[in-house]
Amino acid sequence: MSTAVLFTSSVRGRATCALIRTGDAADAPPLHPAEEELKYAMAPGRWGDFTAGRLAAAQALSAIGASGPVLRKGRSPMFPPGVKGAISHSAGHVGASLVSRCREVVSVGVDVERTDRLSREAERIVCTPWERAWVAGAGRPQSRLSVLFSVKEAVYKAISALRPDRRPTFHDAEVRFGRTDLRVSLVPGLLPYGFRLTGEVRLVKDSYAVASVLVLAPGARLH
């Protein structure tokens, strides 16, 4: 399987998300030399996911006129100065990256999940009572559950990037969907006063859900 860009798109006019699928890591396009060095320091079983994620980051960065490498700070990706970014990957060597240079955006989170990965038993852990009813009312409940899980993972990554001292739980957020955006209710104190969330979800060929979340500074408009 060759490397393919599944999409590159704007998120709420303030960020760019890219989704990449690769074949065998050995056949994928070369990464930046500094990223290759990071890859070879890992166990071979992790090379495919790492490569897909860094290729997605390169694609997203290119779309906003920036470039890597994307290094590491602890366990988190370290993007170039002035860029807020996040990376996620899923089974099948699929990588997603969300990046922004917008001054109104203070942190970002992205998550990609297979829509057939979660079992219904995960509902109790992931969902609030309202969300469980929303999942149960779907023709494909497992797909809705995967979408919710992906959104919450992206929300928590964005919040953790802004507040490393706070690790949210699944029930700290309740997600509802507008026509074009996410509506996320958070427990009080999870975000500093005046900061707000926005974002979106994309479904890819009924196989993957990609959630992109932005934390906006006080005064920024939701659009």
Summarize the structure in short.
Helix content is 26%, strand content 33%.
Word description of this protein:
It is a single chain. The chain has helices at 33-40, 47-63, 123-126, 129-136, 141-162; strands at 4-11, 15-21, 71-73, 76-78, 84-90, 94-100, 105-114, 173-177, 182-186, 196-204, 208-216. The chain is globular. Helices cover 26% and strands 33% of the residues.
How would a textbook summarize the main sheet?
4 strands, antiparallel
Biggest sheet, strands in spatial order? 1-2-6-5
Mean pLDDT: 91
Instruction: Point out poorly predicted stretches.
Output: none
Q: Kindly estimate the percentage of residues that lie in beta strands according to DSSP.
A: 25-35%
Gap between N and C termini: 38 Å
**Number of E-type strands:** 11
Order of helices and strands: EEHHEEEEEHHHEEEE
Q: Round the Cα radius of gyration to an integer and report it.
A: 17 Å
